[in-house]
Structures are given as structure tokens and as C-alpha cells.
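quick one, three chains, predict together pls
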Amino acid sequence: MLVLLKISVRQLTSRSKLILILLMALLPIGMAALVSVTLNEDSTSNGEFISTLLDGLLIAGILPIVTMVLATASFGNELEDRTLSYIVMKPISRWLIVLPKLMASIIVGGLVLIASGVVATLLGASSFGAVLLVLDDNFQAAIAVGLALFAGVITYAAIFTWAGLVSTRAIAFALVYVFLWEGLISSFLGGVRYLSVRGYTLSILHGLDSKSFEPLGERVIEFPAGLVGAAVTTTVFFLLTVRRLRRMDIP
Amino acid sequence: MRARKAIWINGVRTSLGINRGWGPKTPPILLFIAVMAPAVVISIMAVAAGNLEGLPSHDTYYEIISTLLVIFSAIIAPELLCSDRRDGVINLYLVRPLSPTDYVIGRWLAFLSVTLALAYLGQIVLFTGFVLAAEEPANYLRDNWLNVPRFLLAGLVVAIFTTTIPLTVSAFTTRRAYAAAFVIGLFIISVPVAGILTLCEEGRQLPIEPCRPPTGESAKWFALISLPDVPIHVNDLIFPEENSSEFAQLVAKLPSIIPITWYLLLTIGPGFVLWRRYSSISI
Amino acid sequence: MAPPIDVRSVSKWFGNVVAVNDVSLQVNSGITGLLGPNGAGKTTLLHMIAGLTRPSEGEVALLGEPVKDNPQLYHRIGFMSEHEAVYGFLTGREFVELAARLYGLEPLSLPVDRAIKLVGLTDVQNRTLSTYSRGMRQRMRLASTLVHDPEVLLLDEPLNGTDPRQRIEFQNLMRKLASEGRTILISSHILEEVELLAGSILLIVGGKLAASGDFRAIRAKLDERPYKVRIVCSDSRAMAAALVRLEAVDSVSLDAEGAVEMITRNLSDLQRSVPRLAQEQHIRLLRVEPLDESLESVFSYLVER
């Protein structure tokens, strides 16, 4: 399994991909730094920082995009390049093929996004420049952001890895899911948050540090619902991916 | 001429997934429904209420569907350009009496046609709904006929924008997925970035107090960063109604030439890059 | 004992298209050629035998075990697809090592060295695959297919991109492996090579098994099919005139070089008649050759049928 993990990570970390992902990850950090420098010293913009930078930019934007690029490529590129038979025609259980593929995108995406979120949060809360974020405990908040993002990466990765195996147009469906379902529709129909990875991620963030992220309180689902939702979604899509790999015709 | 027309027709068919399986058809169909839905819903609401008070109108329609149009473009534009280069089919096109310029213009026009059709259909539905909803349709038509050329022009502005940049991005990779993700990333992420840089200070009394961004006077420049809003700022110059969105309010402080120039830069620039990219292709 | 490859009433359809239609066959040890025109269903059939594609109907067994949902069987099977793509960022050696690791081979170096030596790429094994020529890539792919010493080898178009010298080396390698008791099924369009290599062939046409067995035996069984024979002699016109009177001869013509070409349904009759006629007419026979004993002609004939 380790050898498959290594290969998968190498496949996902081509130079151009890495550069783009790192640029995206630096964006929240850059934004936090820029605004904290330009903001007036005595102004606080807690709600704005959280909703625009953490939610709008990172959780609703960069998290799903980075994860979908990596996770759909795990199997998607193998299918497109017709190299899947090299892996599949080996005496390995199918779930031991899916797991390293999934883990590769979680590791690459997770490392990058967690670093981005944690550093941006700490920057926003630091006394360097204005304080964008008045946090109860800077480190607790930063850890909450890191863990919530990690949960988001895992859940999105499970869904998008499955999508990459099922369809050659995985990214199209991923984009429609993220920006239509989680973005547009959930702003009209609140119940959709129970079926949205963004909803789970925000709920976990708020649940881990409700004091610092109190402005989110009104629009997040309950913490247990978020945790269970993320866990169930990840498990279901992992099992679906294994099942798909077992049953599909390999090109 | 026939070759160019064939490229155009093929481009339209590829964009809409015509004559292909459900895989290529589903995203265009879903997105088409999503783009048309607001127009249909607003029209129904207007007819039901019997008046147009408080309802979004032609000037705000493109704002409502701009994200959807971007998603549509991000997904469909790579289908038009990436596959041909990946599979080597582009060489087949270019051994005919067809120059790379013909090819790329044909593709651009094809995609523009589809996007325009999407944009205009919604507006036509909206206009029809409003006419039907009016107490005296004839009077409504007489008083509001100018909206038609306005939304036609505004639609062209939006369509050219959402056609050119995605196609340019698609010209640089053979993997559709990466092109789509990059385009979406560019557009969607630019919105919160602009939002952060034009953050409003807390404690102001809405809606009376205007937003006082902490970035001060430069905020009106930072508002231009939001890509989906770039054609909207130009449209705000076409429609007489005031746009109450925060970005619009900020950009309104700039001389009109600025958003127009910015728009032209972001369409002609990428368009030129697209053309150069293809004219340097050798078989 | 069950044959190494046992295919029973296997069909595969994709929507309305039937790619493989009720095919039953058995493949024993040695080299068997799988032939058929494009779209005949060869690759689909091979994929089903390899377990990559599920049959819509029927069963496939390899080495006595069902191939479905049985990844452990892959310890004993080597498969090389027709797609030439590889992981370009790996070196040739890393590519073979990847396969060896996934097969659970321990230690790695011995089987990997051996496999790379078998295909003659020891000198370039540390270059990345993206720098290899097409033929080299094919050979390295073959090495990764052989690294675990499989009993059954399934090769789809293995000769793609190889030059004539490499093809000869490939043939020698295949003969060597087959002589060790392996079962080798090779799908190929290059009929001349299969003709030289394969003891028996399987002919797939339109998703059905059109013929199986020794190709010469197949040819002989096709009685209805007329034989084409060419005769070079000292007086073609006289020979032609004499031949046209025979019952056994369907038609006679003179080709561009002035030799006699004739079509007959009764080869044995002709074999007796031609020398007699030549003697009677005082014609010297220089050459008598069948024009369609090759696999190509059998193949074309069955395809047209």
C-alpha cells in the first residue's frame, strides 16, 4: 500500500499543479497580512474576517477547488491515460487500492490547506497590524480552523475520488455540486446545509471553538450533525468507490 | 468559408452535448435550467403579484446569473479546445484549408453564440413575464421598450467576458479538468478577495451609513478585482438604474472610463493571448 | 484437468452493441494467437479473460479458478494491455519494481534484474520512461508483465511499435517461455508474426468465434472455399487451355507476368492432373504454388463471409 501511496502522491504533485495549489494556499495568508496592515488600528472586523476570509475564501472557495483538482485526478488521470490496469491487475484487495489513492489527495491537499488556514488565522489574530480577529485563544482557534479544514478535505476527497472513478467529467459535476448545490441552493434552502460538506466544515469549526467563531452561530448546523455528516459521507463514498472499482470495466 | 462555418457548428454542438451521450449532455442541461430558473421564477412572481415592485429586473438579471454563466463557461470551454489538442485531432483540422486563426475564431464564435443564447433567453422570458404582468401591457411596452436594446448590449458584454477568459485558459492545458478548475478558481476566488480588501467596518448602521472600507480610498480600485463583476460594472453604465451592491457602489466612484478600460483589458488581452497561442501551433 | 484458460458461453454487450457474442473456447499451454479485424471484440474478450471486464453472460476461469472478484489469481497471470501509456516520471527500473512490489515479490532485485535482462534493457533501466522510444517502452512493459514469472500470459498487441529485430527477439522470448510450460495468448494484427509463433489461433469476427485450431487445418476444412493456384511454365496459354477443360477447375486466367492463375475446389484432383497435362502438352513446369495458404487469406476469407 505504501508503494501505491508514494506513486499516487508523485502523480498529484507535478510542478504545475503544485505551483497553482501553493498559490491558492498563499492567498488567504496574503489577504490576512495585507488587510491587517492596512486596517485602522482601532477597528475590529471579526464577523467580516470570519465570513469573508475563512468562510467565503477558504472554506467555500479554495478548499473545494484544491480538493477537487487533486481527488478527481487520483483515478481520473489513470482512467484518461489508460494506466489503471497496471494497478488493478495485481493481487491486492480493491480497498487497498482505493485507500492510498484517497490518502494521497488528503495528504497533499490537507497539508497545504491546513497550513494556509492556520497561518491566516494566526495572522489575523496577531497583534501585528490591526487585529482582525479577536479570539478567545489564538491557538485554539487556529487548531479549530486546521481540524475543520482537515475534516473538509477528507470528506470532499472521498466524494471527488469516487466522482473521478465514475465519470470522465468528474470536475464538471464537482463544480456543479459545490457552487450550485452548496453555494447557491443552500442559500435559499437552509436544510441543504445538512447535506453539504461546507455545512459540515463550518459546523465543526464553530463546534470546536464556538467563542471565537460565534458570528457563525446563526447559520451553522449543530456540531454533532456536522461530525456525523462528515463521517458518514466519507465512509459511504469510500465504500462506493471500492464497489465501483470492483464492478467497473477497466479500460 | 464552409470550413469556418463547420467549425462553428461543431463548436455549438460540442458545447451543448448534441449527438453525444448523457455524460456530455448533463452539465449543459443542468446549467441551462439553472440559468433560466431565475428568469422563470421572477416572471411567475410578477404575473402572480400583478406588479413588478421589489422584483429584480433586467439590470440585475445578469448579476444574478453571472456565477452560473461562469460555471457553465468553465465546464464547457475546455471541451471545445482541450480535447482536440489532447487527442491530436487539431492536426486534422489544420491540414485542411483552415488556419489556426480560423479554428480558434470559429470556436470562440461558437461558444459566444451559446452563451449569448443562454443570456438572452432568460431576458426574453423576463421581458415577456413583465409585459404579461403589467396592468396595461401596451403601455408597459411603450414605456420600457428601451430595455430590450439595453439587455441585448449588456448580454453581449457579459457573454464576451465569460467566453474569452475560459477559452484562453483552456488553450494552455490538455486536461479539461484543470482548465475548468483554474477558471472557476480565478473567478470565484476573486470575489472574496475583493471582498476582504473592501471590508466594511463593523458597527456601521445599515442601510443609512455607507460602507467605509478600512482600505480607504483605494477600496474602489480593489473592488475591480472581483472578476464576475467586471462586465456588471460596464452594464451599470448601460442601465439607468442604480446598482446597490457594495462593489458597484465603490466602482461608481471611479470615472466611467476605468471600468470600461478594465473590461477591455480583460477581454482583448486574453483574446490576443488565445489567438497567439493557436497561431504558433505547428502540425 | 481444467485447461489454463476456459471461457464458457461468454457474451458482452454495451447498451445495444454486442461486442462479444456467446463465445466458448479453451486455451492450453503453448502460444495461441487471437486474431480478428478491428472491432471484432478481441480486446473485449481478452479483457474479460483477464478479469478487467465483467462478462454480461457466461463464465471465465483461469487455471481452474473463476477470474471474477479474485485478485489473488493475479499472482499467476501477466497481462499487457494494448495501451502504451506508462508512468513517464518513473525510470524503467522503478516501473518494473512497482509491479514487483505490487505482486509482493521479496526480495525485489533478483526478479527485477532478470525481467529487465530478458527484454534487453539493462543498459537503459535508470532512464525515465518519458525518454524511451516506443519500442523500448513496449519492452519495459513486457518486463513488468513477466517479473513475477506468471503461468499465464495475456498480451494485447505486444508488437506495437517494435522494429523487425525486436520482433524476432520477442518471438524467441515467447518460444522460450512457452517451452517452459506457460500458456500464452497473444492478440495481434500482425498476421505474419502470429503465423510464425502461434501453434493455434482463435479467430474472432463480429464478436463470434469464427474458427479455432491450427490455421492450416482450418484452411483445409474450408472445403467450399476455392483454392487459388499459380503455375509458371514454358507455355502458359497452352497450359491454360488444357486446364480449363478439367472438371476440377473453376476458372483460369493469365496474370500480369504471364503465369497461369486458376481457381479450383478440388486440390487433390488438380495435384494429379497438372503433371499429367504438362506431360501431354510437352510443357515444362517451372513453379506451382498455392496463392492463399497464408493466414492472411484465411482471415480475409472468413471476414468476408
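Residues 65 and 285 of chain C are 57 Å apart (CA to CA).
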